[in-house]
Design goal:
Rossmann fold; 2 domains; 7-stranded mixed β-sheet; two-stranded antiparallel ribbon; 8 helices; globular; Class_I_gatase-like
């Protein structure tokens, strides 16, 4: 199978921790050995331009491509991390791209501040979703999705994944599950390792990986 690209959008004030589990366990070679098809995915960094961005932790990330160059049909998923500036008008191009992904039946995963960003263009008015809080989303003018809000750390409805800032592990779980990056029993054991972290959970993970032939 040809390698598929997962696109990770970056912008100034990006919350470093929110997508780190997801992109690490998709992209890092030593973690890929546990995947159902090692090397199936590669993460590619997308920016509004190719200019460096500065994260919330003060780190510099240099995008590999721009939003204008991003074609949904050439992507396996678009990941949108939290940041302080999602509701600024300058985010219009990436939010339009997220709309195009969903219209084409391709997954979008958004966490924290990116969720109100999606709400600002009406994308949460017809899909079940979660976020930092319902109250936060109700501050967004175009948001009419109150009845669809799920009080969960992370939630998947079809091709839309949403999560709260406090749930980077759950966000990763939903992303890895949607992409079928790991066999189900391996993914469940992986989640327990990082959620619980005891010796029994680690033993269960390695046993599941062995049984899956990894």
């Amino acid at each position: 199978m040809a390698q598929q690209i997962v696109h990770y959008f970056v912008l100034d004030t990006l919350s470093d921790w929110e997508a780190v589990f997801a992109i690490s366990f998709l992209n890092k070679e030593t973690y890929q050995i546990f995947q159902a098809q090692p090397g199936r995915y590669r993460v590619k960094i997308v920016g509004e331009s190719r200019a460096p961005i500065t994260t919330a932790a003060g780190l510099t990330i240099i995008p590999e491509m721009t939003v204008d160059e991003l074609e949904p049909t050439e992507s396996a998923m678009l990941i949108l991390p939290g940041a302080d500036i999602w509701l600024e008008e300058a985010r219009a191009p990436v939010l339009a791209k997220a709309s195009a992904f969903l219209a084409a039946g391709l997954p979008v995963a958004a966490i924290c501040g990116a969720v109100p960003g999606l709400a600002s263009v009406g994308l949460l008015n017809y899909k079940k979703h979660t976020g930092n809080s319902l109250a936060e989303l109700q501050q967004v003018a175009k948001y009419k999705g109150e009845e669809l809000y799920q009080d969960q750390p992370a939630y998947t409805d079809g091709d839309l994944i949403t999560a709260a800032a406090i749930a980077p592990l759950e966000f990763a779980y939903h992303i890895l599950k949607k992409l079928e990056a790991y066999k189900p029993e391996v993914l469940e054991a992986w989640y327990k390792v990082y959620k619980i972290g005891d010796a029994a959970s680690k033993a269960e993970f390695f046993a599941a990986a062995r049984q899956a032939g990894m």
